[in-house]
Amino acid sequence: MMNIVPNSEHKAIGELARGLAGQDLRKNWARWEETHEFPVETLKKLASHGLMGVNVSKEFGGLEAGVVAYSNAVQAIAWGDPAIAVTMCVNNMVAEVLQEFGDERQKAFIPKLLSGQTPAGSFCLSEAGSGSDAAGMQANARRTDSGYVLNGSKAWITSGEFAGAYLVWAQVENGGKSSISVFFVEEGTPGVSFGAPEEKMGQHASNTVVVNFDDVEVPADALVMDVGQGFKVAMMALDGGRIGIASQALGICDALLEEAGRIGWAASSYWSGRVEAARALVWRAAKLKEEKAPFTYEASVAKLYASECASALGDTILAEAGIEAALNSNFLQKLVRDARVTRIYEGTSEVQKIVIARELGRRLG
Ligand SMILES: Cc1cc2nc3c(=O)[nH]c(=O)nc-3n(C[C@H](O)[C@H](O)[C@H](O)COP(=O)(O)OP(=O)(O)OC[C@H]3O[C@@H](n4cnc5c(N)ncnc54)[C@H](O)[C@@H]3O)c2cc1C
């Protein structure tokens, strides 16, 4: 029987993150909501405590504390402000991809992503016409004598305008799904430009932009793994990413219950039970990933359950707690807005159901 209960180190990292969230995020969320500011100094502070690379080796400046600790840290940061949690999640994901699949030059960039030297990393998979159907991407990499030339536009890219490094997925020589590859592109590379920041309904302190790649020349060693390995890398990264977003949704649930309590709405055992069930599912997926066991199914179940729970809980509180919950000055209304996108990124709820059905089919033979 797998023990999914966090140990003292996992708990300590969650408590450290909760402390930072209480000191900084809870004091600033209202201003960030208003100004849509990307809080670079706060992200540096998280980095200085290791939170931008919780499951990354100490060799690269990470905490090397594992996936359960990572989940606890994301839950705590999302409790403080879910917008900061998504920036943290994507940075951790980019660093983990480089650690797992990068060559020496690419890995050498990880300390910059973890130390706060660059505010964040970006994961450039989605396009305007290919979100759920990632394999339908149009971005292309043309071979040259010295490397590749990238062309294409990536949509909805978290931290895009501020990223120190981009993982960019593209077909090679328009070769279709089997040619999809991933490239490591550093900030400042000529030909990389951005659209205006998206005016989102929630998570205003996260930056979301179109990132354009116009004749971007990269060396041959910008390729991560081999040509044609990109789709597999993306799917593996998204499995891990789903644990992050499920943890973010859980942090939202914790904050919702607490804030609703402040205005006199007492959670029923039904809601407390749903939130704790979500936490158990998230820890189970995290533990499996930590043990290097298959976790695709468990990560999708956790992400689906936790994100749907956050939205449904928010709706219920708005319906039952009285008008105060909906006032702009109240953190509750922000949490309700912020919850919605946890059902979209890292795969929508409908996509999670497809993954779950496929994985169940495999297990049942
Ligand atoms: C705030 C934000 C940040 C994001 N950050 C990033 C990022 O950093 N990097 C990145 O690469 N992407 C990012 N994304 C993109 C995100 O991953 C996509 O929005 C998501 O995968 C859905 O794709 P789509 O928006 O194109 O919707 P579509 O794929 O067009 O889906 C539209 C609707 O159809 C449903 N649907 C689609 N296919 C099926 C199917 N086969 N069966 C049943 N229903 C289906 C979907 O569930 C959805 O409800 C971000 C998105 C948002 C909103």
UniProtKB/TrEMBL annotation:
UniProt-listed InterPro entries: Acyl-CoA_DH_CS, Acyl-CoA_Oxase/DH_mid-dom, Acyl-CoA_Oxase/DH_mid-dom_sf, AcylCo_DH-like_C, AcylCo_DH/oxidase_C, AcylCoA_DH/ox_N, AcylCoA_DH/ox_N_sf, AcylCoA_DH/oxidase_NM_dom_sf
Pfam annotation, one family: Acyl-CoA_dh_M
Alphabetized PROSITE patterns for the sequence: ACYL_COA_DH_1
Domain Acyl-CoA dehydrogenase/oxidase C-terminal per the UniProt entry, residue ranges: 274-360
Domain Acyl-CoA oxidase/dehydrogenase middle, first and last residues per copy: 122-216
Keywords recorded for this protein, A-Z: FAD, Flavoprotein, Oxidoreductase
Domain annotation Acyl-CoA dehydrogenase/oxidase N-terminal: ranges: 8-117
Cofactors that this protein relies on: FAD
GO MF annotations in UniProt: acyl-CoA dehydrogenase activity; flavin adenine dinucleotide binding
Family in the record: Belongs to the acyl-CoA dehydrogenase family.
Protein name (record): Acyl-CoA dehydrogenase
